[in-house]
UniProtKB/TrEMBL annotation, chain A:
Family: Belongs to the TRM112 family.
Pfam families referenced in this protein's UniProt entry, alphabetically: Trm112p (PF03966)
Protein name: Multifunctional methyltransferase subunit TRM112-like protein
PANTHER family per UniProt: MULTIFUNCTIONAL METHYLTRANSFERASE SUBUNIT TRM112-LIKE PROTEIN, UPF0315 PROTEIN-RELATED
From TrEMBL, chain B:
PANTHER family attached to this UniProt entry: RNA METHYLASE-RELATED (PTHR13370), TRNA (GUANINE(10)-N2)-METHYLTRANSFERASE HOMOLOG (PTHR13370:SF3)
Protein name: tRNA (guanine(10)-N(2))-methyltransferase TRMT11
Keyword check for tRNA-binding: yes
Compartmental location: Cytoplasm
Domain tRNA (guanine(10)-N(2))-methyltransferase TRMT11 N-terminal: 9-95, 100-149
SUPFAM superfamilies the record matches: S-adenosyl-L-methionine-dependent methyltransferases (SSF53335)
Domain Ribosomal RNA large subunit methyltransferase K/L-like methyltransferase: 159-289
EC number assigned by the record: 2.1.1.214
PROSITE patterns xref list: N6_MTASE, SAM_MT_TRM11
Subunit text: Part of the heterodimeric TRMT11-TRM112 methyltransferase complex; this complex forms an active tRNA methyltransferase, where TRMT112 acts as an activator of the catalytic subunit TRMT11.
Known role: Catalytic subunit of the TRMT11-TRM112 methyltransferase complex, that specifically mediates the S-adenosyl-L-methionine-dependent N(2)-methylation of guanosine nucleotide at position 10 (m2G10) in tRNAs. This is one of the major tRNA (guanine-N(2))-methyltransferases.
Amino acid sequence: MKLLTHNLLSSHVRGVGPRGFPLRLQATEVRINPVEFNPEFVARMIPKVEWAALLEAADTVRTLPHARARPEWGGGRGRSHRRPGSLARVGMPRGDLGLCPQLHLVEVPKEPIEGYEHDEKFLRKMHHVLLEVDVLEGTLQCPESGRLFPISRGIPNMLLSDEETET
Amino acid sequence: MALSCSLNRYLLLMAQEHLEFRLPEIKSLLSLFGGQFTSNQETYGKSPFWILSIPSEDIARNLMKRTVCAKSIFELWGHGKSPEELYSSLKNYPAEKMALEFLPFEGKVNLKKPQHIFSILEDYGLDPNCIPENPHNIYFGRWIADGQRELIESYSVKKRHFIGNTSMDAGLSFIMANHGKVKENDIVFDPFVGTGGLLIASAHFGAYVCGTDIDYNTVHGLGKASRKNQKWRGPDENIRANLRQYGLEKYYLDVLVSDASKPSWRKGTYFDAIITDPPYGIRESTRRTGSQKEIPKGIEKCPESHVPVSLSYHLSDMFFDLLNFAAETLVLGGRLVYWLPVYTPEYTEEMVPWHPCLQLISNCEQKLSSHTSRRLITMEKVKTFENRDQYSHLLSDHFLPYQGHNSFREKYFSGVTKRIAKEEKCSQE
């Protein structure tokens, strides 16, 4: 799950309404996923971002002690034998999943700067935070009800059950 | 007068497939590139020859970079019902518009690397069993560009890594993206994403894509395969892998396991297009999550991570939710493109779902069987969405006509059940 997506998600537990945003992110496994930089797309996303929620999410990913980061495996060029979501060990010594020394998570600017559309440095930082940080395992928590939504293999499961369902 | 008519006129040679879908595709694409559909031709109907006015050659070329309905486009220099008419029409074509060095076709002929290609097209009508001696119409023009029909083969579902029971035919998925006016750097969303076929077309046109589906296995790429001779899905069978197959992985945003009737998106407008093929209840079931009270006895609970409780999702409710969701989350001017299954004997135009914020752009039929069809509905958001509750009572009346289709599944199979009953009766006699 990318942080851009997290920024758009909200809890829909019954009765929670707008207080269901933002979902509290807890990540246990994170992957840094290089994505081709497209300044126009990033610039388009900036006005849609809820900044406080983004800062909070980026913080949890960076500071969580058990967060593990691994570079993209397979290079995305037809390596079809790799199972998505499996603990690929590209570039890592066998059996040692250990902590990556840095998450390479750049400081997220506190707010969009004026003239950001043309500021490549700013856009590259935002590109990295919004699109290249992929939460593989973890949870999203409704800030109002405490309900947890699991993330597995990079995919959040937002299904509610029984009485939680909003009528 | 004659002069102004012949300026900027182009001849589109259309493919004879998905006939009803062609005009909305061309209109949508022209408006995407700053043109407008203008033509003196009365009707298009089944003809593959369309004459239209396009403001500039650039717009014409952009159109051809997107269309899968048109084979080629020509700058129209003349046409007529006979060679004589064609010749006099050509004489009227302003000399200064013909590239000077070719007046009157004095340049060198180069068959290997021509600078310009000229074509004569002859229209012999539409009936292959009754071909006239002389063509009905003859056209002469300068070839500009071909359309994107080769995408249909290169993106064919037959070659795709990850498919489902109801994966959309490649040609139609591109038509849907074109009806949706998808453009570079858009965000396109599919709330019933399945194996992601519709997302691929949008990603090909440069949009960033995301989707949701209630089926955990499909989203994760697990479970039984849809291909004959294959039992289980392999490791490279998921939506992301499909995009990777075509070099489009950078456009993959995310997919989620989610119930489209209970969306978990925050308030706001962030989708440029919503392009989807909701389940009709025939080959994929219509489901939604619900509370314990709503379940009749005997329905089992599914394991934890899957759908907790499955209720049948009435088709009319599903479209109500879809339109409301689109009205709320689409940007102004954004489009919703979706398939609406109909039972043809009972279909009327009033059944097409309606919403005060969405304007109906097109409604194209594709026959499924003798008594059922599906319609590709395209709507555009023209009004800001005010309040979720405001629309509930307004819309329920408008969806009443469609509620007859809630038993779409029974009606779809009614032809089959009648035939089986008849056969059994015959064999008993």
